[in-house]
Design goal:
By secondary structure, the protein is of the alpha+beta class. Helices cover about 20% and strands about 40% of the residues. The strands form 3 sheets. An 8-stranded antiparallel barrel has the order 2-3-4-5-6-7-8-9. Strands 11-14-12-13 form a 4-stranded mixed beta sheet. The protein has a two-stranded antiparallel ribbon with strand order 1-10. The two termini are about 40 Å apart.
Length: about 400
């Protein structure tokens, strides 16, 4: 009776272990793909640093960029920022003869920026993240033109100072030249440095909506006024970013096999049993038959692998083979890759049955398409894996 209880307990214990092993599942890992993107920011405003009221130095601003993400953290982009900057002059020291005027000019500013994905650097790569924060630094050129407004303001200010002579302006030597000494005309090209932050809100794998703020600095002659320090302007922009190509692939990582511990029970009674003659263990054989992109015919260079499977099955008549077809996730889509994986598996099945006469009841086959990637290297996943045992 005790022996029966022991056997039943052992069987239940093994059943629990088997169920636990079946419940084990693998995990899917996201693998970053380097990719290009385009960025269009048609909504923007610029503040050019100055001494007059903040609201009077706000102007329109737009930006477009072409970028490339080399890794999950580092990228680069070529951006073009353009439209309009503003400056102003104010003389509120002479009572009724106060002078307050602004002027604007146009510019185009191409820049090469180095970008840093702060979210991926701090929290790891996650293509499904809703909000991503990035930073950038860059340098480029500011091409200014159409500065006629500044000329007119300088003339008006000069006349104002002359009319205000009776109030003491002229007597103090306060002239337009002292405020607009760096007046320029034509087209001017100046070096500009920049830095900023951008936040992107994910809409899909391809599209995100983003906002950006950046600070730009260039020499003192930009706004036509002599101040003895570098000029600055600040941009706030909003727009859309579109990724070109796949930004990531997935890789399936199977769960580790559960550890099975065997509990031995010591039985005091010694029973003599005849020794068992163990049959020699036959090791299974695996062959990976690789294909070229978008093809499912077996190449001459891979034929020997099929023959290896045939020789094994002829040597061991009770052996069976499992054939699984795959496609790489780097190309095509799930519909195309499911069909291609099945065609690659079918090509090997037909070779075994039709060419070498292997019985169909000894062959099991399946296709995983690109939903499972057995190899880390993308191109190796154009494969049919054959395991005979």
């Amino acid at each position: 009776m005790n022996m029966k209880k022991t056997i039943l307990s052992s069987l239940m214990f093994l059943g629990v272990l088997s169920a636990s092993a079946q419940e084990q599942k693998g995990t899917t890992e996201y693998v970053f793909n380097p990719h290009w993107y385009v960025q269009v920011q048609p909504v923007g405003a610029q503040y050019t640093l100055g001494e007059i009221d903040f609201k009077d130095l706000i102007s329109y601003n737009v930006q477009a960029a072409l970028g490339y993400n080399f890794s999950k953290a580092i990228g680069a982009r070529l951006s073009v920022n353009a439209w309009q900057s503003k400056a102003g002059i104010s003389n509120k020291d002479f009572g009724a003869n106060n002078f307050y005027e602004t002027w604007k000019w146009k510019y185009v500013a191409p820049s090469l920026d180095l970008t840093f994905n702060l979210s991926n650097m701090l929290a790891g790569f996650n293509p499904n993240r809703v909000f991503t924060l990035s930073a950038f630094v860059g340098a480029g050129a500011n091409i200014g033109f159409d500065n006629d407004d500044a000329k007119n303001v300088k003339t008006a200010y000069w006349n104002h100072c002359m009319r205000g002579a009776e109030t003491g302006a002229a007597a103090l030597g306060y002239t337009a030249d002292q405020n607009m000494e760096y007046l320029w005309d034509g087209t001017k090209v100046r070096f500009a440095g920049r830095a900023g932050l951008q936040g992107d809100f994910r809409v899909s794998d391809k599209v995100s909506i983003g906002v950006e703020v950046n600070a730009n600095t260039l020499n003192d002659r930009y706004n036509s006024k002599k101040a003895g320090n570098w000029d600055w302007y600040f941009n706030a922009l909003a727009g859309v970013k579109i990724n070109l190509g796949k930004t990531y692939t997935t890789r399936f990582i199977p769960a580790p096999e559960p550890e099975i511990r065997y509990v031995e029970k010591v039985v005091e009674k010694i029973v003599e049993v005849p020794a068992k003659v163990e049959e020699p263990k036959i090791e299974p054989i695996r062959r990976d038959i690789f294909f070229t992109i978008n093809r499912y015919n077996i190449r001459p260079s891979e034929e020997q692998k099929v023959k290896d499977i045939v020789e094994y099955m002829q040597k061991y008549p009770k052996s069976k083979v499992v054939i699984t077809g795959y496609a790489d996730a780097g190309t095509g889509n799930d519909r195309i890759n499911d069909r291609l994986g099945a065609q690659r598996a079918d090509a090997v099945v037909k070779a075994l049955k039709d060419t070498y006469g292997i019985s169909a009841d000894r062959i099991t086959y399946d296709s995983k398409g690109a939903r499972v990637q057995p190899f880390q290297e993308n191109n190796k996943n154009r494969v049919t894996i054959c395991i005979a045992e």
